[in-house]
Amino acid sequence: MELARRAVAPIEGVEVVAVDGLLVDFCKGIGAGVIVKGLRGGADYDYERPMALMNRSLTGIETVFITGDNALSHVASSLVRDVARHGGSIGRYVPDGVVDAVRAALAAERG
Q1: What SS3 class is residue 2?
Q2: 32 in helix, strand or coil?
Q3: How far apart are CA 45 and CA 19, in angstroms?
């Protein structure tokens, strides 16, 4: 949560909040009418579309998809962890401050 807060700190009006339960229930509780999600490609769409339809069915809340930068469509957290695990540079794929946190988490995994 702290890494996410730091990553969005420069963006006015953005808040990081932990949600316990359904996202649409949280959205209703704060008066949000739209969920915005970024997609890397077709697989993300195939995964997210049924969820968006269920959310609309449950509450009427719409989901808007934003297509991500094609130059980064191959980037996934598991790949970033693998690159870091093997000593590769991940700074261009994660926000400032995350590189050190990923390295610390990997070091803790190794014991």
Answers
A1: helix
A2: coil
A3: 22
Q: Which residue has the tokens 């490609």?
A: 41
Same domain, 20 and 63: yes
Residue 96: pLDDT band (50, 70, 90) is: confident
- Kindly state the tokens that stand for 105: 């988490």
CA atoms of 43 and 60, how far apart (whole Å): 24
Which range marks the domain in which residue 61 is found?
1-70
Q: Record the pTM.
A: 0.77
Q: Are residues 62 and 80 in the same domain?
A: no
Look-up: residue for tokens 């990997």?
Answer: 106
**What amino acid is encoded at 60 in this protein?**
G
